[in-house]
Amino acid sequence: xxxxxxxxxxxxxxxxxxxxxxxxxxxxxxxxxxxxxxxxxxxxxxxxxxxxxxxxxxxxxxxxxxxxxxxxxxxxxxxxxxxxxxxxxxxxxxxxxxxxxxxxxxxxxxxxxxxxxxxxxxxxxxxxxxxxxxxxxxxxxxxxxxxxxxxxxxxxxxxxxxxxxxxxxxxxxxxxxxxxxxxxxxxxxxxxxxxxxxxxxxxxxxxxxxxxxxxxxxxxxxxxxxxxxxxxxxxxxxxxxxxxxxxxxxxxxxxxxxxxx
Length: 261
Prior knowledge:
The chain is an alpha/beta fold. It is 39% helix and 23% strand. The chain is built from ten helices and nine strands. It has helices at residues 23-34, 38-45, 82-89, 123-133, 138-143, 145-152, 167-180, 197-210, 223-229, 247-260, and strands at 3-15, 53-66, 71-75, 100-103, 107-110, 185-188, 215-219, 232-237, 240-245. The strands form two sheets. A six-stranded mixed β-sheet has the order 5-6-7-3-8-9, with helices on both faces. Helix 8 links the parallel strand 6 (185-188) and strand 7. Helix 1 (23-34) crosses helix 2 (38-45), helix 6 (145-152) packs across helix 7 (167-180) and helix 7 packs parallel to helix 8 (197-210). The protein is globular. The relative contact order is 0.18. The model is unreliable at 19-23 and 34-38 (pLDDT under 50).
């Protein structure tokens, strides 16, 4: 079991002006809701490069290899490409041609619930749907549903619409599905490391217990957490790989980036 990434690149096509999805609809909603003059709003949204497509390079030449037992801390300033890398590893975003991502064993992305959940459906139905989307069998998800809701501390909300949950509760639900239904590799976006400390501690205890010898990629701004939990570090800056290797040296590189900004 291992994770190998070679020359990983990710490009976002950015549409401008009249090509921007929903531009006309957005203008109509603004004018209808606030009785603005339509011509004034359109002028505000106008762009001299209407209809052009710009290619934004979100990741550039990322290379690393992880072996069983490795826990990689992924760090960088906001906009450095951390979440994009997690989504490429999880096959949520397609990497550019020529990129190589080889993952041995099963894996789970632990990312924001906005990517999975239907706000008007019930919490329980969302739990089942997310489990299926993550590749689990329906019987397995239903069998463990009570334990998942208990772990997420939302068992009394199972018949409520997902929209009734706070952001933190939604995060706990997605995380709990991933923690209770075990896989070989975990790719964890930074939302987990910014939640309440009690749930963080419980989550990482479960990961410790259930993922011996497995591979974890943990995205975080917390230097303390990276030092405590990881044995390797990858530093990104503006989509580029600055450092991969030892924790202490990597944190020094991260601090240099912070001091320059």
